[in-house]
Structures
1.
Amino acid sequence: MTVDLSHYLAVSGIVFGIGVAIALSKRNVVAVLMGVELMLNASNLAFLAFSRFSGAFQEGTAPLTGHTFVVFVLTVAAAEAAVALAMAVLIYRRRETVDLDRISVLRW
Amino acid sequence: MDSLGIVVAFYVLSAVTIGAALSVFLLRNLVHAIVLLVLSFLGMAGLFASLSADFIAIAQILIYAGAISVLLVFAVMLTPLSSRNNANSLYVGPGILAGVAIAAIVVFTAIEVDWVQLTGDALRDRSFVDTIETIGDQLLGKHILAFEVASVLLLFALLGAIVLVTDPRGVGTDVTDDADDAPGATEEPA
């Protein structure tokens, strides 16, 4: 038995699909954000798997661009979570709800 | 032929990650869903570690399982009990359909493509390779501009989050004062 690139990519695709389903079908703003975080995590797994299984890794000369990209994805995900959750709190304060089916207009 | 340990670790971690992510979809209580989301993040960190990505695995535990989950719990606790359910909206059917379609496409591609021909035979030797030094060289060398832009992005996200949640009528205003204003009868929002 061996575990190779296709196994990791399959796990990444399944988690990404679950994230898409959560982000599209949940009613609560926080739950939608959780789906987005799952999608970002799945893309990180794909980046790291490709970086690990590319040919240059074992010689120790790999540029590890996949790892560097994942560092930036983590940074942007943290910034996005902070701003989005602040917006959720603000929307609740003004509209008394975080139900996405009721936040359907851009003005009030 | 991998050693048995890495195979068992991969399947256990994959099962934990996917099962916890599915539970996030299925659970009715949003607080329970956040706890299982943290479990999914931890399983993903284990998968990262099995790919010799030690630095990213630690960063994943610190940032996702630590910081972002605390932010999520705060956002849930700042909204009332009535909005703590994890109900589906009207678009649950198309949402599930889109998720299944994307997962099926990716899994089919991952299985069908001959990756060994494209990536070389690097996976046969699974000895651990240190990554932190190379990541540091890359971040402060070739990708220095993106590194600085990311720091500016973090600064503006911090400022934006503070500005958004600060009450425009003055810091220190009791939040319960807003509650007895009828919605719509409040004065002009800033």
2.
Amino acid sequence: MAKQHVTTTINGEAVEFLCETRQSLLDVLRDELDMTGTKEGCGTGDCGACSVTLDGDLVCSCLVLGVEAEGKSIQTIEGMAQGDQLHPLQRKFLEHAALQCGICTPGVLVAAQALLVRNPDPTEEEVRYWLAGNLCRCTGYNKIIEAVLDAAREMRGA
Amino acid sequence: MLKKTDTPMLDLKVVGTRPVRPDGVPKVTGQARYGADYALPGMLWGKILRSPHAHALIRSIDTSAALALPGVKAVMVGSDMPEQPFNYIGPDRVQVNYWHMTRNVMAREKALFDGHPVAAVAATTAAIADQALKLIKVDYEVLPHVINVDDAMKEDAPLLFDNMTTRGVSPAPTKPSNVSRRTEFKAGDIDAGFAMADEVVEMSFTTEPVHQGYIETHGTLARYGADGQCELWSSSQGHFMVRAYTAKLLNMNISDLLVHPAEIGGGFGGKTVVYVEPVAALLSEKTGLPVKVVMTREEVFRATGPTSGSSMTVKMGVTKDGKIVAADGIFKLQAGAFPGSPVMNAAMCAFSVYEIENARAVGYDVVSNRPKAVAYRAPGSPIAAFAVESVVDELARRIGMDPLAMRLKNAVKTGSPTIWGPKHGYDGFIETIEALMAHPAYKIPLGKNQGRGVASGFWFNGGGESAVTVHVSEDGSVAIASGSMDVGGSRASMALMAAETLGVPYESVRSTVSDTASIGYTHVTGGSRVTFATGMAVVQACEKIVDDMRARAAMIWDVPLEAVTWQDGAAHLTDAALGDKAPLSLKDIAAKRAVTGGPIVAEVALNAGGQAPGFSTQFCDVEVDPETGAVKILRYVAAQDVGRAIHPSYVEGQIQGGVVQGIGWALNETYVYNDKGQLENTGFLDYRVPVASDLPMIEALIVEVPNPNHPFGVKGAGEVNIVPVMAAVANALRGATGVRQHALPMSPPVVLAALDAHADEAVGA
């Protein structure tokens, strides 16, 4: 079957790509656009490693078709830092040692950013429930939660 | 070479600080490259066909239709790999049999578990490869199967191997069975020991196999050339392991295979073997094109990991004043489809935190129709500890003793006996108990439906072979390279130890992991060995650099070497009679590299001995919902002796992560096989690992009783933290409900059924 032509925006840049209708957005990002920062942990929407935002909504990119990106705005981990300026969440993750292997980290960061957009002053419990869809097998979540709370504090100027 | 350090360095400037890790920025920006992130021009996609049957003869495989599909470039089956001799080789605890290993990578005569690979294809797209798999016709004769360990040990159990007889039994049995091996360790006189006991507790337990649950599935990219040279990009816990196993299974010269270490997205022991690497390499050889193979999550659950499930009986006796006088344990562990469960570790570790004169541990390694067990965080020890630490808890209850006091009274220390022969050589356990005794939270009163549980654990920790290179550049900056895959911060630890030894800032040290052609052989990242063994190599290499720097300074100053010392990252002339010279820093000397002898390099390759074991003692508070049986962890405090924490944040992270994996093992994680022996929960939705909202903060107490055999006192941090967890949770649940749980996982329906039975008993009484 002929490939579909898709016009979309990724991290603020206009992007065009061709994809098969069956290809997920995750596969398009990774295999067609060489944007491998977004990770696949399960392919079934259970682990959150492939988290991106689609017009501001947090989604698992493995559950979105590439063709659904048409006309939308996608934000991935590659767009989080501004040039050489890390986002406060990225910086706090490093300072708090909130990653060990790092495979879940892009998804966790994207999800955490989506949380702080909605709720700049979350409680520990709110962070834990928001990130319940992002599996991390290394850290026991401690330092992730601490880093998110600390980043939120800094971003609020508190 | 092992250099004894009786007094580990105390005046530390860099070790023990918490800088950002060298590989940090790539990992928070998405730039770090893991196994599945590599691609090459012209690359094909490899996919693996797996058995839908738990146990079946493979009569024939017809691949012609798959090969005829446009886009398909090659198909392989098990017999495309060379046959391997049937031999158990290597040390007892970690024996390897390549006859088994090649069949685990791809079945030959029989499929031995649901998900067992039977064929593979390489095609121009992943979709075509998937389509091709459906065109492969396998003629199976389905055989009766067996899943659980007790069933597999029955007289009339279906046999996985018609000619397997139990090793370690004298006289050797003539009748085949699924019991691959019996192992026994014994000290003292058990009968005499139990005769001294005032209270004896004997209980039986079962545990489920649990998967390591790394979020990155197995993935590799292979490029095999017409010259017989092969390159692999692979995510594993040891690229030298990948090289050795892949070369062996494909009958290649080891040095014809170059393995690049991709970043690893979690391993926990599960990435110490090969699955996809020989398949990708062989498909690449057949096609002359690069081949990438990446497992799906379903494939990971059906065919990789887990650690063993078990059936165990433990009996222990105690005197009224709390002295444990005898212990006896039987540990039956599932090996999966091929021999090699960690039963020997289980038997050795079982009673290893207690000073018991009379003890015996018997282990059985049992095959059944499920994936072959692979290492998982202190393999074997947590399984045995669930049984032993539950029994110790009951003993403490019987005699009315505080469980920490009970452990303190019986704690091993330097000179205590082990059941496998040598005496304990190191302290550290008592200090973990005392850390909890002094913790204010241990005295917090509990409410209704709440309970507090204590448990302890032992792990050997590891040493072994490591190689390190240190280069000093002409601007004085330092590059260190090692052969140790970094699973969670070891590049940072290596840089810290290098900076400390050289006397330079952490920021001037760049720490990397090199490929198999660029550094000496290095054993896998496992056994909590890297910070100890590879760290020792880093320190020794930096000491060589210091000696070199002193020699170069002596040359520049034209003074004898003995007159030059190294302090705070600079050479100092100590003999005033020889002149008054301003110190020469590493940077000053490096700038004169060419005229003082050329490149500044030190390489150290060693086989580190002198590792010291890890001990952990933990307590947790739980609350049980009597309506649903759900268990909530309210508080968790884990003390662990690590010798010395080089980067304390990553040590805490190891402790917190290990505890949470244990909580998943205790409360949720289990495999669901249907009556055909097929795995039904092949995703994270139904194989439920802990999520953030399940948990409280885990308090990690770092205990530091230095290892005298390491320059900074390192013992190891990665594994012992998981050992006590299941028993700590079960003991807390016993306190909360009055009911002793004998089986993992303690999921809501299990707990609810136990509560209901207990209530019925109470009513009946």
